[in-house]
Design a protein that fits this description.
The protein is α/β, with parallel strands linked by helices and about 350 residues long. It is built from seven helices and 29 strands. About 20% of the residues lie in helices and about 25% in strands. The chain has a seven-stranded mixed β-sheet with strand order 5-4-1-6-11-8-12, sandwiched between helices. A hairpin with a 2-residue loop joins β2 and β3. The longest helix is centred in the middle third of the chain and has 13 residues. Bound molecules: guanosine-5'-diphosphate-alpha-D-mannose (GDD) and magnesium ion.
């Protein structure tokens, strides 16, 4: 296969405030936008042409990737004025695809980090002569995903999007191979969901939807906790990416960053021009460009976004500090707390525990 469609039009609501200006797939993780890691993997698997289905803030994608030459791909963009849903977005790019009716088209959710074998998924699709072949993986809690049971022959028997009581832990991993003609048959010009309409419809019509089951590294980076985890795993080498600058290690310190006298661990990224002061300890965290962490602060599993500041002696665990926010000295931010962009917290203003 040489053609792929990547769905990147979502608003990334669960990642606010990080996604107020940057679409989710363009958030920097491990030294490159999440999407760049994904595109590099597609390229390594032999994909040459990619159509990005954009909607929310499309200019951020074009400004960064242009025609794709710098990453060795022929990149094309199609923008939905109003989001058309996952299947509507795929249908909307159909006239940019070049393969014939029976040729395979790879379709990927733009927020997934996966170490699975794309070539093996494509090979299964061809061998089975399937209409669609879904990568399926296993998760501990399937409620946030598409729950996808299969039979002994590897046929998908149902597609149950985000059900309260999942019938199996086997879920849709957000990477599909479509027979081209199946894409052309999606109704045009209206909102359509692959998960709620297209896949259930194909199953009801008796078409062959195959499951490619592989439990490799897999993470949907749709929440701050997952974004931080995925970034750290890339830095640590738990999942390989051809777009990772330098080798894997405990920390990735990008150009112009200053970290002397600080302790960095657990796959931490220190973004371009960011500063971590002496005595600070940063673990498993994502510090974006121009961020500053003060002396003796302890930052764990947190995001400190662009040009924001975390004051001396702060403790951050599972926290998000938005772009340009200023967190004064001695604050304690935990448990998913989000400081909005440009917010200013005075010194010692917020605590989680009662001990001072
Ligand atoms: N172009 C376009 N237009 N893209 C869209 C639209 C749209 O209207 N809606 C969503 N997307 C993109 C998002 O940008 C994202 O990359 C991808 O489609 C999936 O959307 P999410 O909002 O991240 O969905 P999810 O994570 O809740 O669920 C999906 O992914 C899971 C695996 O990560 C579903 O496909 C689940 O079944 C699946 O298990
Ligand atoms: Mg998602």
């Amino acid at each position: 296969v040489t053609e792929a469609v990547v769905l990147v039009g979502g608003m990334g609501t669960r990642l606010r405030p990080l996604t107020l200006t940057t679409p989710k797939p363009m958030l920097p993780v491990a030294g490159a936008p999440l999407l760049e890691h994904l595109l590099a993997r597609l390229r390594a698997a032999g994909v040459e042409r990619v159509v990005l289905a954009t909607s929310y803030r499309p200019e951020v994608f074009t400004e960064h990737f242009g025609t794709g030459t710098s990453i060795g791909l022929d990149l094309d963009y199609v923008t939905e004025v109003e989001p058309l849903g996952t299947a509507g977005a795929i249908r909307n790019v159909a006239d940019r695809l070049r393969g014939g009716p029976d040729e395979p088209v790879l379709v990927v959710n733009g927020d997934v980090l996966s170490g699975h074998d794309l070539a093996a998924q494509l090979a299964l699709h061809r061998d089975r002569e399937a209409d669609v072949t879904l990568h399926l993986t296993e998760v501990a809690d399937a409620r946030a995903y598409g729950c996808v049971p299969t039979d002994e022959a590897g046929r998908v028997t149902a597609f149950l999007e985000k059900m309260a009581e999942p019938v199996t832990n086997q879920v849709n991993a957000g990477c599909y191979v479509f027979r081209r003609s199946v894409i052309d048959a999606i109704p045009a010009g209206r909102v359509v969901s692959v998960e709620r309409e297209t896949f259930p419809g194909l199953l009801a019509a008796g078409r062959l939807v195959a499951g490619y089951v592989e439990v490799a590294y897999w993470l949907d980076l749709g929440t701050p906790a997952a974004l931080v985890r995925g970034s750290a795993d890339l830095v640590l080498g738990a999942v390989a990416s051809p777009a990772l600058p330098g080798g894997a290690g405990q920390a990735l310190v990008l150009r112009g960053a200053v970290t002397e006298g600080a302790t960095l661990s657990g796959g931490t990224v220190v973004g371009p021009g960011a500063t971590v002061s002496p005595g600070a300890r940063v673990s498993g965290s994502l510090l974006m460009a121009g961020a500053r962490v003060g002396p003796d602060a302890v930052v764990t599993d947190s995001v400190v976004a662009r040009d924001s500041r975390v004051g001396a002696g702060c403790v951050l665990v599972d926290a998000v500090v938005g772009d340009r926010a200023r967190v004064g000295a001695g604050n304690e931010l935990r448990a998913g707390l989000r400081v909005w962009c440009d917010a200013v917290l005075p010194d010692a203003a917020v605590r989680f525990s009662s001990d001072a």
